[in-house]
From TrEMBL:
The chain crosses the membrane at residues 33-48, 54-79, 250-276, 288-308, 320-345, 351-372, 393-416, 428-449, 456-476, 482-503, 510-529. NCBIfam families: ComEC_N-term (TIGR00360). Residues 226-509 form the ComEC/Rec2-related protein domain. The lineage of its organism: Bacteria, Pseudomonadati, Pseudomonadota, Alphaproteobacteria, Rhodospirillales. Signal peptide: none annotated. It is a multi-pass membrane protein. Residues 30-181 form the DUF4131 domain. One of its GO terms (cellular component) is plasma membrane. Keywords: Cell membrane, Membrane, Transmembrane, Transmembrane helix. The keyword Membrane applies. It is found in: Cell membrane. It comes from the Bacteria. Its main location: membrane. This is Competence protein ComEC. It comes from Thalassospira profundimaris.
Amino acid sequence: MAEDREKWILSCAMFLGLGQAVYFSLKAQPSDVLLAVALLITLVGMWVSRHHVIPFFCCLMLFFALAGGGIVQVHLYILQGPVLKKTLYTDNLQGKILSLEPRNGRTRLMVAPDGIAGLSRDQWPQKVRLSLSGDIEARPGDYFAGKAKIFPLSVPETPGDPDFARNLYFDGIGATGFALGRSYRIDRDLTAETGFFERIEKIRLAIMEWINNGLEPARAGLANAILVGERGGVAPALAEDLRKSGLAHLLAISGLHMGLLCGVVFFTVRFGLALFPSVALRYPIKKWAAIAGFIVGAFYLLLSGATVPTQRAFVMTAIVLFAVLVDRRAISLRLVAIAAVIVMVLRPDAILGASFQLSFAAVTALVAFYQGKGGRLVSPQRDLPIWQRIGRYLFALFITGIMVTAVTAPIIGFHFGRISLLGVVSNLVAIPLMAFWIMPGIVAVLVLLPLGLEGIALGFLAPGLDVLIALAHLVGRQDWGVWHIAQPSALAVILSLLTLLWLVIWRQRVLWVFAIVPAVGAGIASLSAQSPDLLVGGDQKDWAFYRNQDDDLVFNDRVSGFHRDIWNARFGTGFVPEKREEMYCVQQRCWFKKNGKSIVISDKIDDPFYLCRHADVIVVLKQDFPVSACRGVKRMPLIIDDDVLWWQGGVTVFLGDQQVASRYVTVRQTSGNWPWIIIGGR
């Protein structure tokens, strides 16, 4: 370990991310003093153990883990601001429009309010995200004014569901909602100065308009997703087929898009300059090409909305291009670690997102492989016939697909509940298509748009998009190619990834013994994980019961499609028509039997004494249950009523067996006391 100190930065990046993940798993923000004292103790430990490798390494890793938590703490202080506590109907919400996104027949606005009727000045959120029906004539910098219904940030519906509120909070958003009908107006302030980011947003919207006018809707939606990061125009059926075929990553601007775009610019500029011997022999045209690639990449970052995946992709690409400028090795695990640290410092909540995890898991595995034995597949091949070069390229692509699928499978299974088994095959076609057709077409669009010649570029781009759409539909219709799995334990996934990362970082097998601890922990966490039997949403409307028979979920007839898809993904039950509650319900009351226990679910009750004596679990969605009615019963039933759901949020119920009492866990218990968690107005 002492002789391989250059690998220490890789471990530091790993423990920095681990510290951030542990911080977010806490129930509340820790004390500043406690965190500072812990950091000071680790620094003292590093000084005392500076002559002993293993103790020093342990203190160093502990320091970076604590530093990860400290970075989150700093961000939370920076982001301090009002968040909406209760749902509000306001007669007048007005403010400056920061951005807008067309999304399937609606328009989403980001508004910086300077007036909200019904709230005092110190209660105005810094940003409010509003949804409006239809397309509107507006630009960043305009002013919105009108009636609206706004909500607190949406917490997880049940424990274990995705926490979208956290992402919105770190975006500076304190409330979401929608405009009421058409009772609003958009005003333009012609005297106001337009800021830099507002100009970029206007350019972004103008490009989307040109693309929408030049391509049919299916092509335009895909082109806008790839070029400006706007996925709202992608038809739901196409988006679903892209996910089922393992091509959904093409909709999120990430390392593939950024690398291909900057690569096309780099090689085009270098090739063009090499045509002039007087320039190529006197000047560093390779470095000039790297600068051109960096400029285009930075513009692409701004144009795409600077989302977290795009930021990560730009950081990695920029480091590669900088390495070209200083004549250093461009691609290495050190590059991956530096990029990860930069992203975690700038946006610490990204560590919990699927995009960050999938991107860095895939890139780390590929870089480690091609730095080792896989390097032969990408070694110089100038002496080989063209057909052998093509064969080696396709074989490398196939191996890459298998590796990426294997490494990212646990993460995809955890976040989405299904894995595309045909993704290797579909990417074998899609990636060359992106590299040699679609991304060059995107570059052509960016170059020719200012000249008014975008029609030529769009004509070249359109057939490539058609091939990609046809591929997604063809593979997506093969239902046997999608493997649905129940959501694994989060702790098991984290420990499994830590084990793999340790094995990748340290090549010496003598150090692999340290990986035994997280590997054993992952096994124990996986075996001890317990799936809930009943989910009851905090909206006091949606619920789902897992029967275990045929691995199906039973939903109530009012369940939203959004929650249905999330819960299907959790249980790995597939996305097929589900069994509805009618077959188990009579007069708005539903009875179920499982593990020898009776469960009743109802909006309201009028005979609590009967339920106390015949049910083991009682769920009353819209009424408080009189607990006194159960006095004298032999076995007190588990009661979940309006009081629990309103003040504690949604619940997951674990029935146990005849010898184990039933129990429930609430969103308040699992999500903790964070500023973005608002339940029952607090």
